[in-house]
Amino acid sequence: MTVDDTGSGEGEGVDGRVDPPPLSASSERGDPLAPEPGDDPLALRLEQLILGAERRYTPFQAARSAGVSMELASRFWRAMGFADIGQAKALTEADVLALRRLAGLVEAGLLSEAMAVQVARSTGQTTARLAEWQIDSFLEGLTEPPEPGMTRTEVTYPIVELLLPELEEFLVYVWRRQLAASAGRVVQAADDEEMVDRRLAVGFADLVGFTRLTRRMEEEELGELVEAFETTAADLVAARGGRLIKTLGDEVLYAADDAGTAADIALLLVETMSNDETMPELRVGMAFGTVTTRMGDVFGTTVNLASRLTSIAPRDAVLVDSAFAEELIRTGDAPASEAQAAEEAAAAEKEGEEPPVYRFALQPMWQRPVRGLGVVEPWLLTRRAGGE
């Protein structure tokens, strides 16, 4: 929701780009706060239940009540992903309080104005996706009218009334847990630069032949397959200590602090999917190196290289770049070569000692040019017999 503000105009975003002009009130883009002609009374009751307050303010009145300029209020609302509501009375006390809190953080010097806009944008993007999922996949199933003649809204209201406080508490709990984990990683960073540009292992896992599947499968079947893939991948990544960055339907992007963890996740993904007859084949590409993190996403040459390796990986196989292979060798997770492993085993046997146990094996592949990244040397990653 941006505002129809004659005094603000278009503003420059925190990333240097010029923000798009406000959307008109007749935009097709949906918005939970944008009033529509002939609003259904039950829909308004549901909105009031969720927001916890009645519509009371126009955007100008809300900004003035919060002590925030229209220009800054417009930037905050735009960053949160709200569509233009013109000058209709569609805002509540909660909207005023949110503006006041963000502006207060800036005034107190705890956040710069640009950082406050980033907070608004990251929160808006994350919660928008969550809300869409909850409505599409959660509430739709719960609000099927149990009796003929009942409307969906009549069923939805009492369901939401019961679930809202529980879901709100659960959301805050999960957010605090994730915040604690993220803060812990920052504290353990070697220096300030590592907090932003960190050395991470990055992996892409991609379903093979997904485009062909979309032509053959019904939409419902395709949706179930994608959900099963994303759920399985998310569970495996989290259980092994990685972080799921994002899902792209037929592809997932994840990261891990060390190459060994990322390698274990990649091979476990391939093994799990190959044992499921309903799933297409999988291919994984991974790279290790400096990664820039922004708003929960990752960027940089390392990420691009992992994506390119995925596109050339064999079916049900994992390819890694040379830096990833070197990191596995350095940490003792993989031998430099099978010949070295054999020599070490023979020497250990001669001395009556246990030979080194390696978790992974690396096989160099042919060097090849990769679009935009020059010539790379992929390595095929597999598990070693006797390793974890």
Structure notes:
The strands form 2 sheets. Strands 1, 2, 3, 4, 5, 6, 7 and 10 form an 8-stranded mixed sheet that branches. This protein has a two-stranded antiparallel sheet with strand order 8-9. Helix 3 crosses helix 5 and helix 9 packs antiparallel against helix 10 (259-274). Helices cover 50% and strands 15% of the residues. With 388 residues, it is α+β, with helices and mostly antiparallel strands. The chain has helices spanning 41-51, 59-66, 70-79, 93-107, 113-142, 152-187, 192-196, 210-216, 219-239, 259-274, 301-312, 322-330, 338-350, and strands at residues 197-207, 243-247, 251-256, 282-294, 297-299, 317-320, 360-364, 368-370, 374-376, 379-383. Strand 2 and strand 3 (251-256) form a beta hairpin. It has 13 helices and 10 strands. The N and C termini lie far apart (52 Å).
Mean pLDDT: 81
Task: Please tell me how large the radius of gyration is.
Answer: 26 Å
Tally of separate helices: 13
Shape: elongated
> What proportion of the residues is helical, as a percent range?
40-55%
Low-confidence stretches: 2-30
What's the multimeric state?
Answer: single chain
SSE string, helices as H and strands as E: HHHHHHHEHHEEHEEHEHHEEEE
- What share of residues are in beta strands? 5-15%
Kindly state the number of beta strands: 10
Describe the main β-sheet briefly.
Answer: 8 strands, mixed
Q: End-to-end span in angstroms?
A: 52 Å
Could you say which structural class the secondary elements and strand pairing correspond to? alpha+beta
